[in-house]
Structure formats: structure tokens, C-alpha cells
């Protein structure tokens, strides 16, 4: 339909993910939250999940351009949030997590004050 807005053309509309994981753009490298966690964990046993933004290519961290927050989910279940302000600290967060079952992959979202919401996932198995 002519004149209809297409969300995929606007990085501030919806959740951004890499278009081609084998060939990331610099914008994607700056914004993709990298999720580090074990591939397998034991049911109801604590483990750590580290999420870093700017690990693949440094992201600015200044008053005018910064990561506002990082959130962690398992599937659609909220697990935690770390908030930041411009010029504060490198945007990374470590979460202590305990799962009784895997109801989807670990999913990290991060919000850049200029470039919107970005997502990355990591598969995990609960035994």
C-alpha cells in the first residue's frame, strides 16, 4: 500500500537482530548483546550469565550516545535488568540465574538511546 510505513526500515521500530550473522555490519557489532553462559546447566543450580554490548566493536559511552539498559530473559520469562547512564561504565552485566526448566533460549535485550532495542539469544539446556 503506497505511503504505508514499513517497520523494518526503521531501527527504532521493534527489536533489531542481525540480518546476516555471518557478516555483521559495524552498527550491528556495536549493538548486539553478546551472551556468555554454559550450554548445559543443572536444574535449580545457580550459574552466571554475562551479557556484553560493544564486545564485537566498541559502543560509545557518552552523555549523548550510550546503552540505557540490558535485560535478560529465558524465553519470555524476565530474569533481570542492569541500567546505565551516559559516561558511567562499560555496558556489561553479569546475572546469577537458576532455572527449573528451559522454556526457550536465553535472550538478551539492550536499549541504545539513539539506535533502539537490540536482541541476541543463546540456546541452553536444563538437565
Q: Can you walk me through this structure?
A:
- With 127 residues, the protein is mainly beta.
- The protein has one domain (18-126): SOR catalytic domain (Immunoglobulin-like).
- Helices cover 5% and strands 41% of the residues.
- It has 1 helix and 10 strands; from the N terminus they run βαβββββββββ.
- It has one helix at 26-31, and strands at residues 15-16, 33-36, 40-41, 47-53, 67-74, 77-83, 92-97, 106-112, 116-122, 125-126.
- A 5-stranded mixed beta sheet has the order 1-9-8-5-6, with no helix packed on it. Strands 2-4-7 form a 3-stranded antiparallel beta sheet, with no helix packed on it.
- Strand 5 and strand 6 (77-83) form a beta hairpin.
- The model has no long low-confidence stretch (mean pLDDT 89).
Sheet with the most strands, sense and barrel status: 5 strands, mixed
Q: Determine the CATH superfamily.
A: SOR catalytic domain
Looking at the overall shape, the CATH architecture is Sandwich
Overall mean pLDDT score? 89
How many beta-strand runs? 10
Share of helix, binned: under 10%
End-to-end CA span: 49 Å
Low-confidence stretches: none
| Tally of discrete structural domains | 1
The helix-strand sequence is EHEEEEEEEEE
So how many helices? 1
Shape: globular
List keywords for this structure.
single chain; 127 residues; mainly beta; Immunoglobulin-like; five-stranded mixed beta sheet; three-stranded antiparallel beta sheet; 1 helix; 5% helix
Sequence-ordered SSE layout with sheet pairings:
Layout: E1 15-16, H1 26-31, E2 33-36, E3 40-41, E4 47-53, E5 67-74, E6 77-83, E7 92-97, E8 106-112, E9 116-122, E10 125-126
Parallel strand pairs: 1-9, 3-10
Antiparallel strand pairs: 2-4, 4-7, 5-6, 5-8, 8-9
